[in-house]
Amino acid sequence: MTHPGHAQAGLHGRGDKAGAMKAVNCTTGNTLADDVSIADTLFTRMKGLLGRSDLPSGKGLLIRPCKGVHTFCMQFPIDVIFLDKANRVISLAEGLQPNRMTKVLQGATSVIELPAGTLSTTNTSVGDEVVIA
Q1: Which residue, 19, 46, 114, 119, is most buried by CB atoms nearer than 10 A?
Q2: From CA 78, how far away is CA 115, in angstroms rounded?
Q3: Which pTM value belongs to this model?
C-alpha cells in the first residue's frame, strides 16, 4: 500500500510538470478537476497531500501506482476515486475524513484524490470511465 492520502509542494509529481492536466468523467461529461498533479515517484507518493491546509476546488492528485490511501496527519476530508488499468472507476471513498484508511483494492492501479464533495457534484459512480490529459 502506498502512503498517500496527501499531496503538497508544487503538486506536480515528477519535476513539477508544467501545464495543468485535467481529469474528466467521460461517462457523465463532468470535469473532476482542471488541475491534476501526478504523484508517481516514491517521494511524491509518500508526500501526497501532507502539509497542506486544504485542497481547493478544481485541484486533484493522481497517485500511481496505488491500491489504497490514508489520511493520517491530514487536516481536511477528501474524495477518492479508485481506477483500474483501463481508468474505469472500481470504487469510491466519499468524504474520507482525516486519520482514516481505505481498504486495499487489488484491482486498483491508481487513485485520484479530490476535494470532498466532488464525487456528488460530478455524479461519479462505479463503472464510469475517467480520462486524464
Answers
A1: 114
A2: 5
A3: 0.85
